[in-house]
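ingest -> validate -> predict -> emit
validate: passed (alphabet ok, no gaps, 214 aa)
predict: started
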Amino acid sequence: MTNDIEHGRISEVPRISQQQKESNRARILASAGEGFRTRGIDGIGIDEVMKTAGMTHGGFYNHFGSKEDLALAVLHQGFTDSLEHVASMVSESSSPLDALHAIVDNYLTTSHRDHPGQGCASATLVADAGRHGVDAQAEYTRGLEGYLAAFTDVLLGIADQAGTPLEPAVARERSIALFSAMVGALVISRAVGRADPALSDEVLAATAKELKAQ
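emit:
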């Protein structure tokens, strides 16, 4: 506690612990992450983000300098969480091929399509990253390179187990195509999901089948 003298009286002002500060920041990030993924960075304001987090507007600036700073943090955290999940699937799979199938099957699901607020930033914020300047694009690039590195290792592992030589440069090219197909399929499936649910499901299933056949 800190003591302040006000009008001749001593008042006690609670000091927020570092742990509480980190917890508050995490709540803001979670609120903004779901809002930005669902409605886009420009589709939700700071007031709503803070209200959803159970905090006041003024508390926002104790953690972020601007909404753009918050957007960068959301992109960073979103990709960090997704890449940790990919690494977990790789480590828990019995083979590189099983890891590839697990990644594809986990990403191209109707649940992932129908719940963008809890989904990967790679698809939900892809257009926002393109619109929000070089810093946002740099955060997306960091995430993209993380995915490409993971996919490249998996593809090289598959080739090694099959006894089929594969140059790292070629594996990276295939990784780029793999990531682009996954993100594109999810974005397209969401674009037609309500108008034509059957077609939306077909986009996910056909893409997953094609990617696992390679």
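The two ends are 63 Å apart (CA to CA).
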